[in-house]
């Protein structure tokens, strides 16, 4: 499990670096800190999103439903990827290797 966690962290860092270079870094930072404050305040949500027994797609769908009105598509996609343990996508929404991601996040409108 530790190897998977390290790989997920490395992928999240890569995705963040890509987003920072292509998005508005100040806005992205503000949005990610807002998510941090929500998770710090809402202990039940934090436990649910970090529960390894829950499927990643379920956690990503919960994040999408809760935060879609408050975050840009870049910030929301990053948070969904982190909680689900998915591989990173490039700034255009493609996964590494060019595969398009499915699920509820793929249907969200762009801002």
Strand content: under 5%
Low-confidence stretches: 88-111
Oligomer: single chain
Helicity range: 55-70%
- Terminus-to-terminus distance: 36 Å
Average residue pLDDT: 79
Number of domains: 1
The total count of strands amounts to 0
> Number of DSSP helices?
5
> What is the approximate shape?
globular
| Estimated radius of gyration | 13 Å
What would you call the structural class? mainly alpha
Order of helices and strands: HHHHH
Largest sheet report: none
Jot down its keywords.
single chain; 111 residues; disordered C terminus; 63% helix; 0% strand; 5 helices; mainly alpha
Describe the overall structure.
With 111 residues, the protein is mainly α. It has one domain. 63% of the residues lie in helices and 0% in strands. It has helices at residues 2-22, 25-41, 43-50, 56-67, 73-84. The longest helix has 21 residues, at 2-22. The chain is globular, with a radius of gyration of 13 Å.
Break the fold down into its secondary structure elements and pairings.
Layout: H1 2-22, H2 25-41, H3 43-50, H4 56-67, H5 73-84
Helix pairs in contact: 1-5, 4-5
Task: Give a brief outline of the structure.
63% of the residues lie in helices and 0% in strands. With 111 residues, the chain is an all-alpha fold.
């Amino acid at each position: 499990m530790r190897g998977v966690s390290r790989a997920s962290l490395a992928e999240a860092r890569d995705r963040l670096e890509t987003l920072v270079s292509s998005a508005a870094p100040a806005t992205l930072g503000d949005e990610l800190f807002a998510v941090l404050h929500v998770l710090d305040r809402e202990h039940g949500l934090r436990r649910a999103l970090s529960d390894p027994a829950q499927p990643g797609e379920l956690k990503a769908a919960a994040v999408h439903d809760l935060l879609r009105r408050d975050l840009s598509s870049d910030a929301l996609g990053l948070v969904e990827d982190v909680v689900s343990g998915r591989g990173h996508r490039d700034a255009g929404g493609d996964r590494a290797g060019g595969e398009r991601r499915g699920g509820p996040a793929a249907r969200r409108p762009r801002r």
